Known about the structure:
The protein is an alpha+beta fold. 27% of the residues lie in helices and 31% in strands.
Amino acid sequence: xxxxxxxxxxxxxxxxxxxxxxxxxxxxxxxxxxxxxxxxxxxxxxxxxxxxxxxxxxxxxxxxxxxxxxxxxxxxxxxxxxxxxxxxxxxxxxxxxxxxxxxxxxxxxxxxxxxxxxxxxxxxxxxxxxxxxxxxxxx
Length: 139
């Protein structure tokens, strides 16, 4: 349901631009539309103007739902705590490398400053978080 809502929002923003360019969205298959959506999200997140995005609770696949990259994770101020887990390939797979990150963001620790997500990782969130570019110190 979350993916459909996100796709509908992206398409609503994209449709005027597509018609101006002459792209016929109605002629595209569902898979083509999803691919277009993924390309659009990756491109937006690669731009310097992009700052952050609110990611709802749930499980998200890196490379499909979220582009791979280095991010900071911040707890929203009105939420008391958030469990963030990053799994290599599948949730609750303790074989091999298994879990890469298991962290609770709360009043004491409300941010992870820098963490790299790789294609195929699974991001599991107990509550929404803000994902942004990490702060670079410039040393």
